[in-house]
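Hi V.,

You were right to ask for the full record rather than a summary. Here it is.
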Amino acid sequence: MSFHSPGRPDDLPEPSVIWAMAALSCAVSAGIGDFWPELRRLEDDGLYLDDGGGDWWRLTRVEGGRYLLVGWDRIGDTHMPHQRPFDHFGQAPDWLPWAWVDRAEKRGEIGFAYWWDGAWRRVDYPAWVENDGLGIACSSLSSVDGALSMLADFVGQALADHMDDPDDLPADVRLAEAMRPVAEAAITRRIGVEDVREMARRLVGPFDADAAFAVLERAGLTLGHRVPPEVPAGTGRPVERRGPWAISGVEWETLVDEAARGAVELDRPEAPENDLLRDWGEWLRGLAAEHGGAVTHTITCGERVSGSSLEDSEGRQIRADGDSDRDAFELRGSERHPERGAWFFLRLRAGTEEVVVDRAYDHFPAWSGIGFASTPSIGDLRVEMDRRSPEWRPDWVWLLDEEIPHDPPTGPLVPPGVTGGPA
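Predicted structure:
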């Protein structure tokens, strides 16, 4: 089934089709067992499908015959750091299960959201959105043939893992045809237990028919028409629900960068030299002897990302043996103080006889450079500041508050309540 990019509501079939094919995928996953790294399951609040690599989508049934489909795929571009975010639920109806939406948003970014109440709808996208990830996430489970093609590929991989001779593996077309009767019966919600057992026999491999049937039964796709799980409808958008950010992620980072570059270091004791730093210095003195008598090693390090620059006395970049063996995270951690915290920037200026060490804990120094590494992310800055005692936090720390992108300062960058700052 062909999908537009970005997705459109009319790309999607009726939700009962997606529900049936996604539930079949979960059932086949249950029948195969632990082979698939993908997380495909039916939960109390709907179907959850995850590809194991961070891409996911959820389909939940909502009281009153309604549905809500949300997900995220790495190919999507509805969250761009240089663009101002928009609310995927900004034009959503009051009946959306808002508590469910809140939980979904807390799990991670949502790349698309579509809802059904007789027809599929979504918010209007800004012009810069080119792909929301809907097609790559849902197209294969939007028809019987698409689902069978996808499932045959995965089942084939699972069966091959259990076969002594891969040549005995049935072709994908045979695997697809083995599952077709169950897939077609899923659309009409008339699957019998013998249908699933026959499918298991035709797949010619280890398959737990009872586990698969249990998922299909719970999803309401079997004879007897068991009522599938659904969540209560909402009664209106929560008053406390915040709107989208008023600025982009890049604009928020720029505010922090401006304040941090204009700040100064707090008066703190010098970190004591340790064996790790001493070894680092000896390595740099050796390089200085090879490169005109002086080298400068500059490091930026946060919680998850680090970068470094190694230059000779003329400012030329140096590639040196042993550089990859040195762990900036280990060095930073070895100097962390439980109250005063850890540095973000470190500069080691080495000659053949001595090494001068500069650290920056509380500001972005001019010598940190541009290009060799980014400044620490807002998330990394917040983690570090939360560790420190309040008296060892710089005066720009208020800009890390999660309310800032919703209500950014429009005047001088001074904290709320301070003269000249926000009220």
